[in-house]
Amino acid sequence: MPDNGSVDPNSPQPPASSADHRSADHRSAGHRSPEHLSADQQRSLLYNLLDDASLFPPGSLPMPAAVAAHVRHERAWFSELTGPFVCPESKLTELGRALTTASVPWIDLSLVVTGGAAAVAAAIDAVAADARLRLRAVEVPAATGKQPAQAIADVAAALDRVPLASATAYVEFPLAAIADPAAAGPLLDLADRRGYRPKLRTGGVTPEAFPDEATLAGCLAAVAGRQIPFKCTAGLHHAVRGTDQAAGLEQHGFLNVLLAVGAAAADASVTEIAAILAERDPAKVTEAVRALDPDAAAEIRWLFTSFGTCSTEEPVADLVGLGLLSQH
After folding, report:
1. Is residue 304 assigned to a domain?
2. What is the extent of the structural domain holding 67?
3. CB-hemisphere CA count at 13 Å for 232?
4. pLDDT in tens, 55-97
5. φ, ψ for residue 243, nearest 5 deg
6. What gap in Å lies between CA 132 and CA 139, rounded to an integer?
7. Which of 98, 234, 282, 286 gets the highest tally of CB atoms within 10 A of its CB?
């Protein structure tokens, strides 16, 4: 089958200094230099980082409110941070009605096929039937009731059979499997050799949905070490690692993840990557972001393409509070 994993032209590109994204020279860009990020480069680090998953828990906005909020975000001063609207296949008809009611001519869409491999073809057909839906990405979970290799192969085969055009395809991987160095390579290759990218679940609405630092660090080491672009979803509500006291949840910080990806790309150990994920001091995390050299920042965003978040305002407010983002 032809490679359907076309790269979204709006996604971050590899650093210009490297023609081969899998080369050792490119990997060394994760090291820091005295050249720190300018304000513009800091904004570039955040470009299209936030996929709008406001339909999903714990946000769970009604469709009309979610569409209206997405339109506001695309017109806001922080619009360059906003990625596509994330919608499950089960709500595409509802999305179409909301677009009509709000007179929205088109919307960039990341389609989550909650029905798994068996539902991919019908979901893609439904998107194709509405010209207002500009498909940017397709996200499909690997079935949890099967062996990981078979579940991933089933999703990849389903994606092979549909026309993705320029949309990027993501397969949601079982984290425990790819955190294991012995299992990670063969599993990641099942999707990567077809051009499909991993999706890593970093949280949810229960404590069990949040991987611990060691598990997430192992996953980041696996994908960054193989120079495979990926996205995250859920749980990254705030910039810095912390505890949601009301919900009783230990949450990863998205800036911690960005920094951890840089360390993983520079061949840091899993223990070192986990320590970055565990850092709770906002001042230390902020300074580490500012201290990234431009090549390292470019590589981080080439690898870590985006994350799905049920709130755009929370990440933006955190970045403003840390002095990493300003309206002026």
Report:
1. yes
2. 24-321
3. 31
4. 999 999 999 999 999 999 999 999 999 999 999 999 999 999 9
5. -115, 125
6. 19
7. 234
